[in-house]
Design a protein that fits this description.
Radius of gyration of chain A: 21 Å
Distance between the termini of chain A: 51 Å
CATH topology of chain B: MetI-like fold
CATH class of chain B: Mainly Alpha
Oligomer: heterodimer
CATH superfamily of chain A: MetI-like
Order of helices and strands of chain A: HHHHHHHHH
Largest sheet of chain B: none
Shape of chain A: flat
Distance between the termini of chain B: 74 Å
CATH superfamily of chain B: MetI-like
Strand content of chain A: under 5%
Helix content of chain A: over 70%
Strand content of chain B: under 5%
CATH topology of chain A: MetI-like fold
Radius of gyration of chain B: 21 Å
Number of helices of chain A: 9
CATH class of chain A: Mainly Alpha
Shape of chain B: globular
Largest sheet of chain A: none
CATH architecture of chain A: Orthogonal Bundle
Number of helices of chain B: 8
Number of strands of chain B: 0
Number of strands of chain A: 0
Structural class of chain A: mainly alpha
Structural class of chain B: mainly alpha
Largest interface: A-B, 37 and 40 residues
Chain lengths: 217, 225
């Protein structure tokens, strides 16, 4: 195996990894904010809101991320009348897809809080926003953390799909290199790519576990 | 201004249906491999010997932290360099199976952890042999505990099969892209297949619940041997 072929491409692969981190960070941020909002609204015990947002959650959980990317890519120009750059398109597709999963995680967390916690908070004279902010969320997010970390790892892995909308992150970089070196140790390039994704995902999972341990009561 | 026109897709109904069938075939073949292998993997993962246990744990760690697409690319583009040439369908099923197995191992591992140790002790003290313990005591409980999570995995694998598009399997997403490139009705065709995936996923969810009710409701059974 010719390792030197791989070594000269390491800087390019790392640059691709940086783009992966950017797309992943954007998607994770969007998925978290949107998912938190949708999840809290669904847990708020308003029937019409619950059902309406249920459609949102079920729809985006039932279509492949790949199809989300295609949809965003082809529907934005039609709806807005102009193209959006590939980076925001990728973040939008992954973020919205992830938000549906995040919403369910948040809802699960909120619903795991026993009713007596609400009652106790209300009887102390707190109002709904205060109860959510100071009593429910701190406990709910602790419950939601492990599945949320799994979702973040899944979103990092889904970044490999954004080559479809023209974002040149790790996968696209590796495919381009593969095209230029014609069979000279392309496996090495792919293994380095796999290793880089592994390091990213594993780091997030590891940090998640540490935070989880810290938060344990 | 772009005029949306779903009617222009009418001539391609058969093609899209064929894509849907291919999606079903890839997913079904994958699950037929991954569920039994994953069950075996979970037994290794929970075995008392450290060697099989760490091999299974390492496998799960690697697969869960590497994108499916990377696995598909390695199977389809790199195995031929090592002399193993697979057609797109086989490569797709192989890559998707490698991925799904890791998740199935985790599902069954969780299920096995949910079986109280007293069950094993009781079965052993009744004089059941190890394979009987598994078959008559562990497995019936395991399948009940793991059933909902397996249903999610069936949906997950079906949705993930769309990534076989990248290695040229003519499943639903590839066919949609193909129809898009002939008609330039990309938007319409992707809305159509999004709805199709939605219907498929919802049908699996509902069907799985019904299947569980049918298969897993307790009925008297005679244990022989």
């Amino acid at each position: 195996m010719d390792v030197s072929v791989v070594i000269i491409y390491v800087p390019q692969l790392l640059a691709g990894t940086l783009t992966t981190i950017e797309v992943a960070a954007g998607s994770i941020l969007l998925a978290s904010i949107l998912g938190l909002a949708v999840g809290l609204l669904r847990a708020a015990k308003r029937r019409w809101l619950y059902l309406l947002l249920g459609v949102y959650v079920e729809f985006f959980r039932s279509i492949p991320t790949l199809v989300m990317l295609f949809l965003v890519y082809f529907s934005i120009p039609i709806m807005l009348g102009f193209d959006i750059p590939s980076f925001p398109a990728a973040v939008l597709a992954l973020g919205v897809a992830g938000s549906a999963y995040m919403a369910e995680i948040v809802r699960g967390g909120v619903e795991s809080i026993v009713p007596t916690q609400w009652e106790a908070a209300y009887s102390l004279g707190m109002r709904y926003p205060a109860v959510v902010r100071y009593v429910v969320l701190p406990q709910a997010l602790r419950v939601a953390l492990p599945p949320a970390v799994s979702l973040y790892v899944a979103l990092i892995k889904d970044c490999s799909l954004v080559l479809l909308v023209g974002v040149v992150e790790l996968t696209a970089v590796s495919m381009n290199i593969r095209g230029t070196i014609h069979g000279r140790n392309t496996l090495g390039i792919f293994l380095v790519m796999a290793a880089l994704y592994f390091v990213l995902c594993y780091t997030v999972a590891f940090v998640g576990q540490q935070v989880e341990r810290r938060l344990q009561v | 201004m772009y005029a949306i026109n779903f009617g222009s897709l009418a001539p391609y109904t058969d093609l899209l249906a064929a894509g849907l069938v291919q999606t079903a075939e890839v997913s079904a073949a994958t699950l037929a491999i991954a569920v039994p292998v994953g069950l075996g993997g979970a037994l290794l993962r929970t075995s008392q010997h450290p060697v099989p246990r760490s091999i299974a744990a390492g496998y799960v760690q690697i697969i869960r932290n590497v994108p499916l697409l990377v696995i598909l690319f390695i199977v389809y583009f790199e195995l031929p360099e090592l002399g193993i040439k697979l057609d797109p369908f086989t490569a797709g099923v192989t890559g998707l199976s490698l991925n799904t197995i890791a998740y199935v191992i985790e599902i069954f591992r969780g299920g096995l952890a949910g079986i109280p140790p007293g069950q094993y002790e009781a079965a052993n003290s009744l004089g059941l042999r190890p394979h009987q313990v598994f078959l008559y005591v562990v497995f019936p409980q395991l399948i009940r505990i793991s059933f909902p999570a397996l249903g999610n995995q069936v949906v997950g694998t079906t949705l993930a099969s769309s990534q076989c598009y990248f290695i040229g399997v003519s499943e639903l997403t590839s066919v949609a892209n193909q129809v898009g490139s002939t008609t330039f009705r990309y938007f319409e065709v992707f809305v159509v297949i999004a709805v199709l995936y939605f219907v498929v996923a919802q049908t699996i969810n509902r069907g799985w619940v019904l299947l569980g009710r049918r298969l897993l409701t307790d009925q008297p059974r005679r244990v022989s041997g």
